[in-house]
Amino acid sequence: MLRTHRIAPVVAIAVLAAAALATAGTAHAATAHTPAAHTRAALDLSCSQSYLPLPDPACTPGATNPDVTQDTIDDTICVPGYSTSIRPSTSYTNRLKVQQIAQYGYADTDTADYEEDHFIPLSLGGHPTDPKNLWPEPRYAADPSGLTSTDKDTVEYKLYRAVCNRQVNLVPAQQAIATNWTTALSVLGLS
Questions:
Q1: What is the mean pLDDT of the chain?
Q2: Are 87 and 128 in contact (CB under 8 A)?
Q3: Which positions ≥6 away from 61 have C-beta within 8 Å?
Q4: What is the pTM of this model?
Q5: Which end of the chain is more exposed for a tag (fewer CB within 10 A), N or C?
Q6: What residues contact 55, with CB distance under 8 A and at least 6 apart?
Q7: What b/e readout covers 20-31, taking b as 16+ CB neighbours within 10 angstroms?
Q8: How many helices and strands, by DSSP H and E, does the chain display?
């Protein structure tokens, strides 16, 4: 005979423990990976394509992660796998990408044609989930310069290496890429 009076308290404890873990995880996730953790102002703007290959600075000025400073780079960005460990879920970035493609008024609305890019990259201490640091960067050349998201990725990697190799400090690298990623390397004397 099954003694449910002994099993019920064990099940109740397990359910309560699971609920507590789920609630704690949800609270952390809401803080770290959802738009609710940030101002909605960035999502309420209409954005201009006239700045391409840069984002509209009113919509995407960039935002930094407060956990990443010059003093913490050896424990954060310069640790292999750091960016992957804080990268937001694709469910979050895909939802944001759709909203931002509409805000930018792109005629091409195929999400595969855009990278939901961290303007200040995670590898340079960019904020992982703040909409002010994410934008739908075209994967194709969207202006006469011919530059693409792949070109920006190359600049990001060179800046990351320079910061971790102590050739340049973190904040100047963040400022240079947020000002104009196409000139960031030359501004910092790295090209």
A1: 83
A2: yes
A3: 119, 132, 178
A4: 0.77
A5: N
A6: 47, 119, 135, 137
A7: eeeeeeeeeeee
A8: 6, 2
